[in-house]
Amino acid sequence: MAEMKFKVKFPDSRPGGTTPVGDWTYHHVLPWRYYYLCAYVLCMAYRYMLIQDNAASRGKSGQVNIGPAIAALATRFWDASKKEIDSKGLKKEFGNDCLGFNFGAELDAAQLWKRIKAIATTAPNQLDTDVRNAGEFSPDAVARACLGPAFGGFWGINGGQRTDDPEELREKARPRSGDLNWWTNLTAIGTALESISPKIQENLPSSRELDVTLKEDAWLVLNNAIAWLVQHNSRAPSFAVADWCYKWNTAIVPVGLNEDYTGGALAKMGKGGKVFRLLVGNERLAVGNAVAEAASDFVRVTENGKRDVLYFRNGEDV
Q: What is the pTM of this model?
């Protein structure tokens, strides 16, 4: 079975940020380095496909049937004397066992490029413009534009107020309002990435560089999961009060209006206190008849006739 091997050098820090929705915080299900690696792998597969397409085109008509910005890339792997792909060059770029890598009979370079553009956070077709303007195809430049795919997370409590915030690790629990198929495919991407580069699970080394060994079975999982998420136009779940609870003394309390949401009780928690978390599994809520009805019910504290204690949206006083 063929496999591709290459190194990926990550940016020194996460490029850009995530646009907030109202006052809520966007939580990546997978850390940004996972999304960078995912896009980089797709780009390397795209590079390989372009080289194959170029060879087929030259063999038939002698023409380079790809855009001018990436023509030089494919031409570099063409052995004019033999009129075939330079296998030595390919092996140097993609590893000794890369020849004949099977990306799937129903996927070609044009389809894969559309898929890459679909996970980018830039405006439609902006990646086309960026590649043309750069005059080259850079997996790093493209991957930097794919760190916050629409399907990649969910909206919720500020991370500084979550007892279960994973920080630089993967989210462990699916928000109850999140679609199960969305979660299954998204976490499948994470598992596939960990199989091709196990050290992605850890903090990046000082070199910011990781080795990747992409096998065909891992590619199949990765490609199918991304295809499903893109096809179904999966989006980050909007903030749902019923997904969250806070820990008050020994009881698990739903986020909503109830007797514990008094100025005095919340003041004791302190601004930015880690008191909220996602509900998990079939967890039951231990509190009278309190009901979370809407985001507008969420922790609006009035004390002494004025709003001066806490707003737990983005963890700031109002």
A: 0.79
